Amino acid sequence: MKRRWTVALYATLLLTVLATAQEVTLPNAKDSFHFVVIGDTGTGGSAQYKIGELMASVRKTFPYDVVVMMGDNMYGGESPKDFVQKFEKPYAPLLEGGVKFYASLGNHDNANERFYKNFNMDGKRYYSFKPKDGIRFFALDSNYMDKEQLDWLEKELTSSSEPWKIAFFHHPLYSSGETHGSSKGLRDVLEPIFLRHGVSLVLSGHEHFYERIKPQRGIPYFIVGSSAKLRRGDIQKTELTAKGFDTDNVFMICEIHDNTLAFQVITREGKTIDSGSVERPATQSKAATAR
Amino acid sequence: MRLIALSTMFSLTAFSICAAEDPAVAVFTKNVNEYVKIRDAAKQKSSNLPKNSTPEQIQRSEQTLQGEIKAARANAKPGDIFTPEIQPLFRKILKDNFAGPANKEARETARQGNPTHELEKGEAPPAIQINAVYPKSSPMSSVPSLLLLQLPKLPKDVEYRFSGQTLILYDSLSNIIIDYMKGAAPEL
User: Fold this and answer.
1) What pLDDT is recorded for position B12?
2) pTM for this one?
3) Tens digit of pLDDT for each residue in A126-139?
4) Residue A136, beta-bridge partner list
5) Cα distance from A43 to chain B (closest Cα, Å)?
6) pLDDT at residue A90, rounded to an integer
7) Residue A269 in contact with partner chain B when CB distance is under 8 A
8) Beta strands in A104-249 (DSSP E)
9) Cα distance from B13 to chain A (closest Cα, Å)?
10) A254 partner at 20 to 30 Å CA-CA among A10, A126, B67, B78?
11) Cβ–Cβ of B175/A77 closer than 8 Å?
């Protein structure tokens, strides 16, 4: 009897340990680059805190040091107290662990967030950074895409020798959302630049759901706009969608290894609702090799 | 065809598109630059905000800038920069870019984040007044790229924004409404 209880106790303890570790299905290969994508986060609400907890939990088995933010980082006021409630507290374990958040500006963000130390925007509305050899991120301000920003983007992409060029900004160029939908005007100005310079991946938010768009002219697009906000039932049935999810909050974890980006999208309940991989298009790979 | 049109557009400078020879544009530009001088003088007193600021530093810097600018522009009134002479040009450019079925996408862009179109819980539209602080609890409208190419070029950290159909001249550093034109844009 005593032995049965002991076995049961150990089994329960084991299951508890397994249950608290968030399951990660990504390869976790040696020398790969890991990062996380969140969007439309700045509510200070329970969903944001829950997602923040899960992000910290994931980091135990899938270490990462970079989080990219798709904008709407702060809703409502932006007093010092708001920064604590809507950013520093929800992600406290990550900030304390040295994770760097790189923000882009959404339509609910004040431009002076660019000076906030924890958003790592270098004091600029748009900027680029290279977290690892071979990978460069380009954060854009999709609210105000003036000629100066477009010229900057052309120049940066021209001088970028990194095979992986990842653009992220608030308004999605392609979207099946009923409330907003595709930003066609922005697409007209950005897509040609992305195609011309071999951008590998585009990430956005603004829509309060998750959508993996079928590759458009070879470029994969993701919308991750439900890491705190959520608009249930907002995804319409369109030809664009490879996978859509609008019934719970999510964040996305990513791993880049050589020419492959693997991704996993995790809900507030810890469930995986999408996963897979995208390959950097072969033409880009050849171009990268030729440099 | 659209891509060719866009490429052609981008090869021109904003100035050449928006009737650079028009003396009203020169006056407009001069007036905006005069504002920037006031803002830059105010910046000297608040000191430049470092790129790794705390929220407290950001708030203090903004409040100092706002106080200095308001004091320096105590007598500013609507139309000091959007003068009666320049307004017809702005109205024409906005009508060309927003009116009619062909400009549906531009209108959609200007509705995004427009405080009379999109408000989240706890947000309210800004009070449109000279020297008023644009509240951080109000969203910011997007502005179509093609429109930005056609409007008179602005200095750094001075932007065009919309609240409803009102065109706002906005200082993104001090968060102040510099001037505005009510009903400048057609219905969005």
Assistant:
1) 45
2) 0.91
3) 999 999 999 999 99
4) A165
5) 10
6) 98
7) no
8) 127-132, 135-139, 164-168, 201-204, 210-216, 219-224, 241-245
9) 9
10) A126
11) no
